[in-house]
Hints:
Shape: flat
Largest sheet: none
Number of strands: 0
Amino acid sequence: MSGLRSFVARRLLLGVLQIVAVVLLVFALTEALPGDAAVALAGDQPDPARVEAIRTAMELDRPAWERLVDWAAGLLHGDFGTSLTSGRPVGQYLADGLGPTLLLAALTVALLVPAGLGLSVLAARYEGRAVDRVISSVTLAVYAVPEFALGVLLVTVFALRLGWLPPTAVGHGTDLLAQPGVLVLPVLVLLARPVCSLVRLVRAGMIDALASPYVAQALRYGVPGVRARFLHALPHALVPAVQQLARTIDWLLCGVVVVETLFVIPGLGTVLLGAVGERDIPVVQGLAVVFGVVTVVLNLGADLVAHRLAPRAGVAA
C-alpha cells in the first residue's frame, strides 16, 4: 500500500509539472507564430491607427511575461480569454465543440474495447492457425490505410454509390443523435486504426501470458481454460493496452481534425481549424491547453491502472 501511495504521489507531482510545462509551451509557441496578429485582423489594407488600436486591445504592447502571468491566472479561474474575431468567451467555443467530439469519442470507445479485446483473445487462442492469420492480416491492412483515404472510400461506396448513409453532417447542427446515420461513417473511420493497434498489442501480450509459468500452473490445478485466459492472462496483457487506449481517447477527445473536416462535424477539431485560419490566438491557446491537460490526465490515469494491473512492472508513460 505504501508503494502504491508513493507511486501515485510521484505521478501526481509529475502531472502537475507537465501541465505547467504545457501552459508555458503553448504560450511560447503562439508568441513565436510568424506575422503580426494585429495586421492580420485589420484587413487587406490595414490603417496604421487601426492596427495600433487592435494591438492595444490585444495587449500586444505589454511585455510577454506580464501577459503570460495574466493568462495563467485566468486559466486557474477557468477563464480562457476572449475571441479576437467574435468577442465571445473562449469557453463557449469549447462548450460548442465538445459535445460532437465527445459523442464521437464515446461511441468509438464503446465499440473499440469489446471489439479489440474480443478479436485479440480469439487470435491468441488460435495462434498460428487460420483465424489468427486472418485477423492479423486484416488488422495490418486496415491500419495501413490513412483516415482520410478510408473516409473518402467509405463515403464513395456507402453514401454516393449505394445511398445508404449521409455523406456529411451538414444541416444537422450539433445534435447528431437526432440523425444517427450521420455518425456511422465517422465512427467507422475513427474506429479502424485504433482497433487494429489494440488487437495487435493485446494479442502479443496474451500469447506471452498464456505461455507463462503462472498460467501453466493454473491449468495444472484444473482451472478452466476460459477462466485462465480471462482472469490470469488477460490482466497482464492489458498493461500496454491500457496506455494505448488512453492515447486513443486523448486523440479522440482532442478532435480528429481530418475526420471532423471530412464529414463536416462541428467538433473541437473543426473549431481549432477555424481559429487557426482566422488567427484567433486566444481560441488556439485555450484549445491547445485543454488538449494538453487532457493528454496529461489520461496518461496519468493509464499509468495508475497499469500499475494496479501489474505492480511489479513499474509502468510509466
